Amino acid sequence: MSHLISYQGLSISLSGRLILSIDQLAIPFRQCTLLTGRNGSGKTTLLKIMSGLLKPDAARIDYQGLNLSWRQAKPYIQKDIIYLHQQPYLFDSTVFNNIAYGLYRNGENKTSAHKKVNQALEWANLSHLAHQPANSLSGGEKQRVALTRARILSPSLLLLDEPTASMDSESKQQTSLLLQRLNAEGLTIIISSHESHTVSHLIDRHLHLENGHIEELNSASRNNKVTPFKTTKNTHINE
């Protein structure tokens, strides 16, 4: 099986305590992986290392045919891998501007960026919130905005840390749908979650962290059916 990225000899200690000691971790293309483990097991630490936000004590990374140190790989992975915290940071501006930010930063011209943002808003069923202040949104809406902002940058790998935590059932359903659509579009996703039942239908692979080591658990075959949103009046979703 071909892999998007793999890590060898990944280790890190924090405050004198060994957090991670992983001999090998390979991430297959276009799969959705569930990452579980008890609180303090190192799930967030691992995701931050994978996204280039936290330097490990040691690691070798195979990416795009290159065998790299973490420092050498950092520019590549920070460009191609996006990490979303369970409480995503949104700028003090409108939903539209939040989603457009990454495009502007990458040098996209205004006309092209606006077209992409409007398409992304429709894709996520967020068009009705385009001009709302992001800080006025519910937790579920903020997570959907963050997912849409990530998608518009076309990452190779999306790392999600407890993406449905503290949401009501409707928000969990809508967020789960966006994740299902992202994976159906070919995006590789890793989801760290204590609520595996909310994403079980998405999962191809289950990894579990314990005592600094990672093991693969058996996963049931998922249902690939994409369930449409329960649309409300004056909203429309392109399938």
Describe this structure in words.
The structure is a single chain. The two termini are 30 Å apart. A hairpin with a 2-residue loop joins strand 9 (205-210) and strand 10 (213-217). The chain is of the alpha/beta class and 239 residues long. It is 32% helix and 27% strand. It has one domain (3-217): 3-Layer(aba) Sandwich (Rossmann fold), CATH 3.40.50.300. The strands form two sheets. The chain has a six-stranded mixed beta sheet with strand order 6-7-8-3-9-10, sandwiched between helices.
Q: Which keywords apply here?
A:
239 residues; alpha/beta; six-stranded mixed sheet; 32% helix; globular; disordered C terminus
Q: Count of helical segments? A: 7
Please tell me what the overall shape is.
globular
What is the CA-atom radius of gyration, in angstroms? 18 Å
Count up the domains.
Answer: 1
Estimated structural class: alpha/beta
Please report the total strand number as a whole number.
10
The assembly state of the depicted protein chains is single chain
In the predicted model, the low-confidence regions spanning at least 5 consecutive residues are 223-239
Mean pLDDT: 89
What's the architecture in CATH terms? Answer: 3-Layer(aba) Sandwich
Sequence of strands across the biggest β-sheet: 6-7-8-3-9-10
CATH class call: Alpha Beta
CATH names the topology as Rossmann fold
Order of helices and strands: EEEHEEHEHHHEHEHEE
Helix content: 25-40%
CATH superfamily: P-loop containing nucleotide triphosphate hydrolases
Measure the end-to-end span: 30 Å
What characterizes the major β-sheet? 6 strands, mixed
Share of residues in strands = 25-35%
